[in-house]
Design brief:
CATH superfamily of the largest domain: NAD(P)-binding Rossmann-like Domain
Number of domains: 2
Helix content: 40-55%
Low-confidence stretches: none
Oligomer: single chain
CATH architecture of the largest domain: 3-Layer(aba) Sandwich
Number of strands: 12
Radius of gyration: 19 Å
Strand order of the largest sheet: 5-2-1-6-7-8-11-12
Mean pLDDT: 96
Number of helices: 15
Length: 334
């Protein structure tokens, strides 16, 4: 397939680089200085698979008819990215990779729903400098559909292609998995508020307690609304139920240890990476999704609402909060 990867951040560069190494025909679409950096120096990948330098074609706009588009921009950037190239991708397959559950609905404004394959990325990467990516940890790439749970031949075809570089699977239960993935990502807001790595932030048990409280609040909302969660590879639903039912102090200690051992390289999470690169974050599609569900159903999500507001304050004020400020702002809600 002729593959276009739209979005030159951590996941986009990692995917484009590894697929190119496997002999695939890949073009990366990026913005501004990133295009120049990758054009001149290639994509530098380090981390769990060692060091790689990959030369990939890159441009600021898509200028050909791809058979597969892998969309790796953040959810808030989907409409801008697709409006620029909608006339070129009407007959393409589009693979979404975004966190949250809104990406496919936004993409469906620009091309037919039957052309959209949704996915969940379980591997992790960090990108703080144009064209340089740290592959922090391995994980599956899960394919399915928000619109039609039944797998299609196209899904398996794309899965076989991606499986050259990543462990890939196709599921009928993508929506329930995507909702659980929001829980996995929901604690990314805390490093973003404080401005430090996950390892540093979650070493503090008081901060880890906030993480458990985030989950407890959201899990109660999902329980009341009857939203089914489906297990992810490496993160079964039972993990979440255990964390939300055991004493908070004990849960926080376990969570702290788990996060400390997640990656030997500093891990910042997608929200903090966006802030560090001067970009708008995806907080409204993560913790903000909990808040939206609560407000639409006359429920309450006060902790997640405060955390969303604090991330937006960091975005606009360009100042991180201290751990003490975070604990003070949330102490009545934890």
């Amino acid at each position: 397939m002729r593959i276009a990867v739209i979005g030159s951040g951590a996941i986009g560069c990692l995917v484009a680089g590894y697929l190119k190494e496997k002999g695939e025909e890949v073009t990366l679409v990026g913005r501004g200085s990133t295009v120049n950096a990758i054009h001149d120096h290639g994509i530098s990948i380090s981390g769990v698979r060692g060091n790689h330098l990959v030369r990939v074609s890159i441009s600021e706009t898509l200028n050909y008819l791809p058979e597969l588009v892998i969309l790796t921009v953040k959810t808030q950037d989907i409409e801008g990215a697709l409006s620029d190239c909608a006339h070129l991708i009407q007959n393409s397959l589009l693979l979404t990779t975004q966190n949250g559950v809104q990406a496919d609905k936004l993409a469906a404004k620009y091309l037919p729903a039957e052309k959209i394959i949704s996915s969940i990325v379980m591997f992790g990467a960090t990108n703080l400098e144009s064209g340089k990516v740290v592959h922090n940890f391995e994980g599956d790439w899960i394919l399915g559909s928000i619109f039609n749970p039944h797998p299609t031949p196209e899904m398996f075809s794309v899965g076989l292609l991606l499986d050259k570089a990543f462990s890939t699977q196709v599921t009928q239960e993508l929506k329930g998995m995507k909702y659980l993935k929001i829980f996995v990502n929901a604690n990314n807001c805390l490093p973003a508020i404080i401005g430090k790595s996950m390892q540093e932030v979650f070493a503090d048990i008081a901060i880890a307690r906030i993480s458990i409280a985030i989950w407890k609040e959201a899990f109660e909302i999902f329980d009341k609304l009857g939203i089914d969660l489906v297990s992810l590879p490496g993160f079964p639903v039972e993990n979440l139920t255990k964390f939300t039912t055991m004493p908070s102090e004990h849960a926080a200690e376990i969570f702290s240890g788990m996060m400390h051992n997640l990656s030997k390289d500093p891990l910042y999470g997608s929200i903090l990476q966006s802030i560090m690169r001067g970009k708008v974050t995806e907080i409204d599609y993560l913790n903000g999704e909990f808040v939206r569900l609560a407000e639409e159903n006359k429920l309450q999500a006060p902790l997640n609402k405060v955390l969303v507001e604090m991330v937006h304050q960091v975005e606009t004020g360009h100042r991180f909060f201290s751990k003490e400020e975070l604990i003070q702002r949330t102490k009545e809600l934890v």
